[in-house]
Write a structure and sequence with these properties.
This protein is mainly α. The protein is 77% helix and 0% strand. It has eleven helices and no strands. The chain has helices at 8-35, 40-57, 64-88, 93-111, 118-127, 135-155, 161-179, 181-194, 200-225, 229-244, 248-251. The longest helix has 28 residues, at 8-35.
Length: 259
C-alpha cells in the first residue's frame, strides 16, 4: 500500500479528465442503449485510435493538432459510414458495427507491425494514460465537450442520422486520447445501464454520480495499490453500477405516464 501516491497534483487533473469524459458520454450512452447499438462506442473509439496510429505511421506525431485532426477525421469517416449503413441496412447495423470494430483493430495492428514500440503504443491507446494528463491538455477537451453538451441539450436527445453519429464521433475523439478505448466504452455503457430503470433528470443525475464515484475510487485505489489506473477505474465503474442496484428505486421499472 502506497499512501504517498495520493498526490492531488496528479489525481486532480486525472479526475477532471474523467468528469469531462462523463459529461458527454453519460447522455450519449443513454441514447446508445435506447437505440440498441451497444458497441458503436467501442467501434468508433477503435477507429479514432487507428487515426492516432495512422498519424504516427505517417510521421505526423510531432504536432498534437495533426494527431487530433487525424483521429477526428477517422472517427467522422467511421460515423459517416455507420450513418450510411443505418439508412441502407438498419436491420444489420449491429453486426456491421462489429465488423467496423474488427477492421479498425486489425488495421491498427498492421500499422504498428514494424514499430518497435508498437505494443506499448497500442496498450496506451487501449488502457489510456489518464494519470499523465495536465490541466493544459484538458482546456480544449472541456471546450469541445461543452459545445457538444449544448448541442445535445438543444436537440433534447432527438438526434438522428449524421447528427447522432457525428456528435458521437467528436465526443469519442476527445475522450479516447485522454482515457483510452476501454474507459470510453465503460464510461458510456456502465452508468447508463446501471440507471436504466430511472427516467428524466433523476436518471441523468444518478448516472453522473455513479460515473464520478467510479473514477474517484479507481484513481484513489490505483494510487494506493500501485495498479494501472485505467483498468482499475473500469472495475470501479462496474462495482459502483452494481452497488447502485442495492437501492430499490434503481431496480424499479418506471410507470409510464398516462395522458
Amino acid at each position: 500500500m502506497n499512501l504517498a501516491g495520493l498526490e492531488v497534483s496528479i489525481l486532480g487533473p486525472a479526475l477532471v479528465a474523467g468528469l469531462i469524459v462523463l459529461s458527454t458520454h453519460v447522455p450519449l450512452g443513454q441514447q446508445v442503449l435506447k437505440r440498441g447499438i451497444i458497441f458503436i462506442d467501442l467501434a468508433l473509439a477503435q477507429v479514432a485510435a487507428m487515426g492516432v496510429i495512422a498519424a504516427q505511421f505517417f510521421e505526423l506525431g510531432h504536432s498534437d493538432w495533426l494527431v487530433q485532426l487525424a483521429a477526428a477525421a477517422a472517427a467522422l469517416l467511421g460515423a459517416a459510414l455507420l450513418g450510411f449503413t443505418d439508412r441502407r441496412w438498419s436491420r444489420y447495423q449491429e453486426p456491421l458495427i462489429g465488423i467496423l470494430f474488427v477492421l479498425a483493430a486489425t488495421g491498427a495492428l498492421l500499422l504498428l507491425a514494424n514499430n518497435p514500440h508498437g505494443g506499448e503504443h497500442l496498450k496506451n491507446l487501449l488502457v489510456g494514460q489518464i494519470l499523465w494528463v495536465s490541466y493544459g491538455q484538458l482546456v480544449p477537451a472541456a471546450i469541445i465537450s461543452a459545445v457538444l453538451l449544448g448541442f445535445i441539450g438543444w436537440r433534447r436527445g432527438g438526434m438522428n442520422g449524421m447528427a447522432f453519429y457525428g456528435t458521437f464521433a467528436i465526443a469519442i475523439t476527445v475522450s479516447v486520447q485522454l482515457v483510452g478505448v476501454y474507459l470510453v466504452f465503460a464510461s458510456l455503457i456502465i452508468p447508463a445501464l446501471a440507471t436504466v430503470h430511472l427516467s428524466g433528470k433523476k436518471r441523468l443525475v444518478s448516472a453522473y454520480l455513479i460515473g464520478a464515484l467510479g473514477y474517484l475510487l479507481g484513481l484513489i485505489l490505483s494510487a494506493v495499490l500501485d495498479l494501472p489506473s485505467g483498468a482499475l477505474i473500469v472495475w470501479m465503474l462496474a462495482a459502483c453500477g452494481l452497488a447502485a442496484q442495492a437501492i430499490p428505486a434503481m431496480r424499479r421499472t418506471p410507470v409510464p405516464a398516462t395522458g
